[in-house]
Design brief:
With 358 residues, this protein is of the alpha/beta class. It has two domains: 208 residues, Alanine racemase (TIM Barrel), CATH 3.20.20.10; 123 residues, Beta Barrel (Lyase, Ornithine Decarboxylase, Chain A, domain 1). Helices cover 28% and strands 23% of the residues. The chain contains twelve helices and 18 strands. An eight-stranded parallel sheet has the order 8-7-6-5-4-3-2-9. Helix 1 packs across helix 3, helix 3 crosses helix 4 and helix 4 runs parallel beside helix 5. The longest helix has 14 residues. It is elongated and about 75 Å long. The model has no long low-confidence stretch (mean pLDDT 98).
């Protein structure tokens, strides 16, 4: 088999979920497992967490159906709600919590003859302007839904735009807009994403929603996962599949963008952008071999990338190469590529086998 594997440490996910709960004593926590648990494998993550997690959050009904197979009794929240009227029937059959973010979704719900009422989360657009009601519209919808036969719990939810930028003025404004609606009667409230879980206790409410922190990556540009006490979950490991000597002045890779400034030893690694490693990673970006960092040499290819082994003479064909993990934090790679850890994790493609430990 091609020597490339994403090793997922399930004990690290458990540690990170427990840490989120410690940050918000007495609160419940939806573990956010949308997008195949950020690329880690939703069924495996949910199966491992279902005994300790208060609930799970997903983006859509298809994801919820998959999670329900692994967690028959868990509370599962549809963060974007339903996309057509018939989905409410399926949501009721599955026993889901459902977000409602506009009048259309509310009308669909009220027109349904459901086998059982749903836990509803009215979504407030508190300042992100992506989904949700304006404050006055939410008040009107609250009045329509309160006491409806289709509704069990009536809850309030919103989402921060800039909680990852500590001290941002919009965060305080969103908190104020959210708090202004707490004069209405809600059964539960939820506001805090990972960044707010870690740094904004005033946003914790009854339910928190840890996402990226579960997977051992940081939501902050200036604070590393290690500094936050998070444990990395995924280690992406390839291998050296070729080693060659390259004379001074010769180039490596597409576009001949890397030119040897000295007689060099170049290794080829079994990982490329079709596996999810970012093509935007510049020359000089680190990978780890024999616990030593070595730099990328030239452009990342679809199935391979090249590294400069000149200062690691003991490296040879077959040696393991850590693309990211405990020794090469994914957030460091993301920063070098001008992106975030979320994107890299969710872009690890299906052809990379996941190996579960812990």
């Amino acid at each position: 088999m091609r020597p490339l594997v994403a090793t997922v440490d399930l004990s690290a996910i458990r540690h990170n979920y427990t840490m989120a709960k410690r940050c918000a004593p007495g609160r419940h926590a939806f573990a956010v497992v949308k997008a195949n648990a950020y690329g880690h494998g939703a069924r495996e993550v949910v199966t491992h967490l279902r005994e300790i997690a208060d609930g799970f959050a997903v983006a859509c009904l298809e994801e919820a159906e998959d999670i329900r197979l692994s967690a028959p009794d868990a509370r599962i929240l549809l963060l974007e709600g339903c996309f057509e009227p018939a989905e409410y029937l399926r949501a009721a059959e599955l026993g889901l919590d459902v977000a409602i973010q506009d009048q259309r979704q509310a009308d669909w719900l009220l027109a349904c003859d459901l086998p059982r009422p749903l836990n509803v989360w009215l979504k407030l657009d508190s300042g992100m302007h992506r989904l949700g009601f304006a404050a006055e519209s939410l008040r009107q919808c609250h009045a329509r839904l309160k006491g409806s036969v289709q509704v069990a719990e009536l809850n309030l939810i919103s989402h921060f735009a800039c909680a990852d930028e500590r001290g941002h003025s919009l965060t305080e404004l969103q908190l104020e807009r959210y708090a202004a609606l707490l004069t209405l009667e809600f059964d539960n409230c939820s506001l805090a994403n990972s960044a707010a879980v870690l740094t904004l206790p005033q946003a914790h409410m009854a339910w928190i929603r840890p996402g990226i922190m579960l997977y051992g990556a940081t939501p902050f540009a200036e604070l590393s996962a290690q500094e936050l006490g998070l444990r990395p979950v995924m280690t992406l490991t390839g291998a050296l599949i070729a080693v060659r000597d390259v004379p001074q002045g010769e180039s490596v890779g597409y576009g001949a963008s890397w030119v040897a400034q000295r007689a060099s030893r170049i290794g080829t690694v079994s990982c490329g952008y079709a596996d999810g490693y970012p093509r935007t990673a510049p020359s000089g970006t680190s990978v780890v071999i024999h616990r030593q960092r070595v730099p990328l040499a030239g452009r990342v290819s679809m199935d391979m990338l090249a590294v400069d082994l000149t200062d690691l003479p003991q490296a040879q064909v077959g040696d393991a190469v850590e693309l990211w993990g405990a020794q090469m934090p994914i957030d460091e790679l993301a920063q070098a590529c001008g992106t975030i850890g979320y994107e890299l994790l969710t872009k690890v493609t299906g052809r990379v086998p996941r190996h579960y430990v812990g």
